[in-house]
Each structure stands twice: as structure tokens, then as C-alpha cells.
Write a structure and sequence with these properties.
Oligomer: single chain
Domain CxC2-like cysteine cluster KDZ transposase-associated: 221-327
Organism: Auricularia subglabra (strain TFB-10046 / SS5) (White-rot fungus)
Number of helices: 22
Largest sheet: 6 strands, mixed
Biased composition (Basic and acidic residues): 13-27, 109-132
Biased composition (Polar residues): 43-52
Distance between the termini: 46 Å
Structural class: alpha/beta
Protein name: CxC2-like cysteine cluster KDZ transposase-associated domain-containing protein
Length: 671
């Protein structure tokens, strides 16, 4: 399967541990390759129902470091995001491994003797089947419908309101009647218009109904006479001109649109209308002379719908229109534009607030941890990646010189393409630039333009079958591409992902499904692009390359030997596929972004990526804890298997291998 449309680089954040023992405790690093019996083409021997010649999970490579948590196997998925990991499977072997199984004694397999999960059928025994629940509903359908019909009438409707107020004079029959009720309050009483207004001063956007002698008609609190006062806790402004008419505004909340009479504060030194609305938790559709606004509750709900459900703004707006007037299925274009613009500005303000930039966190970060983030960045830093001075020891420069310690402070990056996030070529505002140009995940547009101007004629790239717009991603660095995955564009995205002040000692394990082509002139290209003496060129010279485990099976045999992650010293069980799981989610974000203006499109994609990173962050501790338990369980069994494997090989060869690939502990006994 060929993936089209963008190149993305993202860290394998679980491929390393931030809590290794820094002391002199002896540790063990075991690299085991389980031999397997070659299977002839067409043979059905040793094939399980889940086996497939086109989909082999490479679990034959086991790399365990005591006290070090490494990346889970290929088919475990992105467990850090979900907070869980897949169950360990030690019986799955790679049927494609080479080796003469007939002449090599095969050690006994490592059996998983961990306690199995109990039978869940007993726990589910008391649950009713769906068919039984439906049958029960049919038996009680009349009872349920009668409860629905009861809501359409109230026996108190039309009687005298308990407040005792009169309408006009006190003649008999002019008392206020109980005609109004709220459809959002719990157990709403039927009351008069004065009572309904008094009880909803702090809930001015509730939906109300009025009894018209036939049924409860849907109206608004404005029809009952409610005026929404700003600046004085719901009370009218004492400085407001006598007899001044309130401002009619359209307010939208989770129940749809409605007209509301609003009175702004007119005191001397009063805040602007914009500030008064925002302080009342209303976000205006326009910043000057606002006449429409959306509640914060609605804005938060829309934002979560966009990043979690990937719902397009137009679909959300259409739902609001139907909530207001269900029979009106044709959405108003102006209202949609107002919601789209307000959502963009509100999300931008929330990103600044949540990143700490609104509170001036940059002053602290630039003083305590210079180089951690770009100035003004609204992106979330990864806590499991090595950041000099932030989560690395003071003597890290000496530690990385030790080949037995270097992998602990290595940066693992994954790079891949997404061709579902394309941008349509249509009539739009071409001058629209992202609010966070250079401060979000995307590379600053002026920097990208200058870079392409200098290296636009570079002849080295990977060209897909079709010409499309796309995007590239590098940890916290995105780039839109136009024709294929040009290697210079990938270089820029990669180098920007290191941050504003990368450490020269940093080494990188770069996973990319085209690394067999990308690495060939990588160091030379970076030298031409950034200068031979630049820190980028030094980082390029300290970069290791691998092809993700799922993709490597589709490469030729030479690539599999040279670029398999299991053949990289210190890579452990890193799969290199950490960048793949987000594609399902981010691909759906393409429906939201492909019709937007260029700047708005970038912000939508950044929001989706930031939400994914946040979910990984909150689940990383639980995922690492479970993997720590797996390591504790499998380590002694892996040692036992390694000793058994070594005993069946030539002593001189094993000794040479141990000398060439040293471990952190003493050499294992061969017999």
C-alpha cells in the first residue's frame, strides 16, 4: 500500500525511558533473534489462521534492557495515546527469517506463563441480550409513549400564578396566569411571564414555551420581556439613558440561535462592547459593533467535536439551525461564516491561553530552559524526548560518548506521508496566513519560501504517482508540499524539529519508509543547505536510519538487512511506526480543512495534532507502567533463551559477536 500526500516526522516518544538508573548498577542488554524454519512457497505447514504472506508481524526480534522501557511491538498500536498496551506475545515468530533450521538445534520456545484472564462469560451471564431488551421495550411501549405525551400538557396551565400578581387593575379575572415554562430547567413549574423572567436572569438563553390554549408553543425569553444586562451582575446599568432601547442580538448556544435584547454598561470608563460580551462568556462574531455572539459552552463543544469527532463546522452549524427551526433545513450562509470565523478566533485564543503564552511563560522558559521551544510557541513539548537541561543529566555529553549509554539519550523520530490532508485549489483568500505563523507546528511561511527559492531546483526527491498538495510533519514542524516529497523540504522539516538551539551531542534514530533512498546523500544535502560547520550538519552526521517494521517487509532483502530497526544497536523494540496511528484521525481532519483558507487550514491541522499529542501525554505514564511489568516478566525468560541459543552456536563466533556488540552487563556464560 503506497501512502500519498504528505511527509510527517514525529517522535517515538515511548521508545526510550526517562527514568533509567544513572548510577553504576549493572544492567543487561539482550539482543535475541529467534530462529525459524524456512517455509517453501505454497506450503501450509506452520501457518496459523491469522498468518499472511503479505502481513507478517516481525516479533522474532527481542531486545530488552533491564530498567529501560523500549517501544512495543508492531501490532500494539499507539498505546500511549490510549493509555494501554497490547498483551505480550512471545510465541509469534517471523516465518520469513533466513537461516538453516535443519542444521541448527532449535531452543524451546519461551512460553507465557502469566496468569490468563478469567472467563468473561460468567460475568456477562446476568446481562440481557439485545433481543430480550427489545422485546421488553415492545411490551412496555405504551407506558413509555404515555410518559412522552404527558410532557405536552400541564394541568396547571391557565390557572392563577402562585405569585398573586395582577395584570392591570385588580378586577376579577385580570390576574396573571400560569402560561410559561422552561424546557431546559429540571422539573420546570408553569408560571407567569414575570416569574419566568425573574427566575432566568442568570440563565437568559434557556428555551421557554407558552401555553396557547392548545399546546405549548416554543418562544424565547425575549418574548416574555427579558433583557440581558451586562456589567452589573445582571442588573440594569444606573447610567443607562432613560428609555433607551436595548440592542437586539442573535445569541447561539447548544440549543440553537435565538434573539436576545442586550443592554451594555454605559458607565464612565466602561469597557468596550467586545470586552463586556467576552466577560459575560459570549464570543462575538465580529470584533467591532458585534450583533451576533456564541456562548463559550458552544465554542468548547464545537472545538471538542472538531478534534475528537472530526465534525466539519458546516455540519455543526446545520445542526444548530435545525435545533432552532427543525423545519428549516437550508442553512444560512452568513450564519455559517460567522460561526467559522468565531470558532477560528476562539480556538486561537484558547491555544495561547493553554500553552501559557498568555501568562508570559516565554520569559520563564527562555531563562530556565533556553532552546526548549521556539519563542512564542503554542505547541506542547514531549516530556519523553531528550531536551538538554530540561530532562537530561548534567553530564549527558560524557554519557553519550559511551556506546552502552548513548541509546538512552537518543532522539527517536518517525517520518511518513499523509495524502488525505490535501488543499483544494478554489477561490479563496490567498493572503490568509495562520495566526501562529512560525509559532505553531508549521514552518514559518517566509522561511519556507526563502528555502525553496534557494533549493527549489534540487533534483533529488521521491515523486508519487499523482501531483497533489500535501504536508510534511517533523515532531513539531509541518510543511505543505506541492509536487512529491522533495528531500530538501523533508530536510527543513526535520532540522526545524530539533528546536531553536539543538545540542550538538544529540543523536537521532530516524524512521522513514523511504530511508533507503533518503539517507544516500542526506549529509551532503544538509551541508549544502545549512553550511558544513552548522549544528544541523553535525546532527545529520549523528543520525541513524531505519525503515519501520511494517514497511520493511515490502523492501528488497538488502534493505531489510541494512534498515531493519532490530539491527540498530540500542534501538530495542522500537517499531518506527509511531507516526502511523495518528493518520486515521488526521485523515478525517482533511474533510474540515481542505475547503478552508490557507491559514485556517493550517490551524485546523495543528489543532488535531495538538489534541493527539495531549492524549498521548496523559496516557504515557500508564502505558510505561504496563510495559515495565512486561519487561520484569520477560527479562529472565529472554536471558534463559539467549543462553540456550548461544550454547548451540560456535563459541568463537559468539565471543566475537559479544565483543562487537557489547552489552551493559558481563558476558553471558555460553554453557
Amino acid at each position: 500500500m503506497r501512502i500519498r500526500k504528505a511527509v510527517v516526522i514525529q517522535e517515538d516518544s515511548l521508545a526510550r525511558s526517562d527514568h533509567e538508573d544513572d548510577g553504576d548498577t549493572q544492567k543487561t542488554d539482550v539482543n535475541v533473534r529467534l530462529p525459524s524454519t524456512p517455509r517453501k512457497r505454497g506450503s501450509t505447514a506452520n501457518v496459523t489462521p491469522s498468518s499472511s504472506p503479505r502481513k507478517r508481524w516481525r516479533k522474532a526480534y527481542v531486545s530488552i534492557s533491564e530498567g529501560t522501557l523500549e517501544q512495543a511491538s508492531d501490532d500494539e498500536g499507539d498505546d500511549a495515546m490510549a493509555g494501554t498496551t497490547a498483551e505480550p506475545n512471545t510465541d509469534a515468530y517471523d516465518a520469513s527469517d533466513e537461516g538453516d533450521a535443519e542444521n541448527t538445534p532449535r531452543p524451546s520456545r519461551i512460553k507465557d506463563s502469566s496468569p490468563k484472564k478469567g472467563d468473561k462469560q460468567e460475568a456477562k451471564g446476568n446481562r440481557k441480550k439485545t433481543s430480550e431488551q427489545v422485546a421488553e421495550y415492545l411490551e412496555r411501549e405504551a407506558e413509555i409513549l404515555s410518559c412522552f405525551f404527558i410532557q405536552d400538557y400541564d394541568a396547571c396551565a391557565g390557572s392563577r400564578c402562585p405569585c398573586g400578581r395582577w395584570k392591570g387593575d385588580t378586577n376579577e379575572g385580570n390576574f396573571l396566569k400560569r402560561l410559561w415554562r422552561c424546557s431546559e430547567c429540571f422539573h420546570p413549574p408553569v408560571c407567569c411571564e414575570i416569574c419566568i423572567v425573574e427566575t432566568h436572569k442568570n440563565n437568559p438563553f434557556h428555551r421557554v414555551q407558552r401555553w396557547n390554549d392548545s399546546f405549548f408553543e416554543r418562544l424565547t425569553l425575549r418574548d416574555a420581556g427579558l433583557v440581558f444586562h451586562l456589567g452589573h451582575g445582571g442588573e440594569s446599568c444606573p447610567m443607562a439613558p432613560s428609555g433607551a432601547a436595548p440592542t437586539k442580538m442573535t445569541i447561539c448556544d447548544l440549543q440553537g440561535f435565538q434573539a436576545v435584547d442586550v443592554c451594555f454598561c454605559r458607565c464612565s470608563g466602561a469597557a468596550s462592547e467586545l470586552s463586556q460580551l467576552i466577560c459575560a462568556r459570549l464570543f462575538p462574531a465580529t470584533l467591532s459593533r458585534p450583533r451576533s455572539a456564541f456562548t463559550w459552552t458552544l465554542m468548547d463543544d464545537l472545538r471538542l467535536d472538531m478534534v475528537q469527532s472530526k465534525k466539519a463546522i458546516y455540519d455543526y452549524f446545520t445542526k444548530l439551525v435545525r435545533l432552532s427551526r427543525n423545519a428549516e433545513v437550508n442553512a444560512d450562509k452568513k450564519g455559517y461564516e460567522n460561526l467559522s470565523r468565531s470558532s477560528r478566533l476562539y480556538n486561537a485564543a484558547m491555544r495561547v491561553r493553554q500553552s501559557g503564552q498568555g501568562q508570559g511563560i516565554d520569559k520563564i522558559l527562555q531563562t530556565l530552559y533556553p532552546g526548549l521551544l521556539y519563542p512564542g510557541s503554542v505547541m506542547l513539548p514531549c516530556p519523553s524526548c531528550p531536551h538538554p537541561g530540561f530532562n537530561t543529566p548534567d553530564d549527558v555529553e560524557d554519557l553519550v560518548k559511551d556506546p552502552r549509554q548513548e541509546h538512552k539519550y537518543r532522539l527517536n523520530l518517525g517520518m511518513d506521508g499523509n495524502y488525505k490532508l490535501y488543499h483544494k485549489h478554489k477561490l479563496m483568500d490567498v493572503n490568509d496566513v495562520s495566526i501562529f505563523d512560525g509559532r505553531g507546528a508549521y514552518v514559518k511561511q517566509s522561511v519556507l519560501a526563502d528555502f525553496r527559492k534557494d533549493f527549489g531546483n534540487y533534483t533529488e526527491w521521491y515523486l508519487p504517482e499523482r501531483r497533489q498538495d500535501a504536508r510534511e510533519n517533523a515532531r513539531q514542524s509541518l510543511i505543505d508540499i506541492v509536487i512529491g516529497e522533495r528531500f530538501p523540504d523533508i530536510d527543513l522539516a526535520l532540522m526545524r524539529s530539533y528546536g531553536p538551539e539543538p545540542a550538538r551531542w544529540l543523536t537521532t534514530l530516524l524512521s522513514f519508509d523511504k530511508n533507503c533512498q533518503y539517507w544516500v546523500n542526506f549529509r551532503k544535502r544538509v551541508g549544502d543547505e545549512f553550511g558544513d560547520d552548522s549544528v544541523e550538519t553535525q546532527l545529520a552526521s549523528q543520525t541513524l536510519f531505519c525503515v519501520p517494521k511494517f514497511h520493511i517487509s515490502n523492501h528488497v532483502e538488502d534493505c531489510q538487512f541494512q534498515f531493519h530497526p532490530a539491527h540498530v544497536i540500542g534501538a530495542g523494540r522500537v517499531s518506527g511506526e509511531e507516526v502511523e496511528p495518528p493518520w486515521v484521525e488526521l485523515g478525517q481532519a482533511g474533510a474540515q480543512s481542505r475547503d478552508s483558507n490557507p491559514g485556517h487550514r493550517q490551524e485546523i491541522i495543528e489543532d488535531a495534532i495538538s489534541d493527539w499529542n495531549f492524549k498521548k501525554l496523559v496516557g504515557i505514564v500508564r502505558a510505561l507502567l504496563k510495559r515495565a511489568k512486561e519487561v520484569a516478566f520477560h527479562l529472565p525468560r529472554a536471558k534463559e533463551f539467549f543462553i540456550a541459543l548461544s550454547a548451540n552456536l560456535d563459541d568463537a563466533r559468539v565471543t566475537r559477536w559479544l565483543r562487537e556488540f557489547p552489552t551493559e552487563s558481563a558476558e553471558y556464560p555460553l554453557h
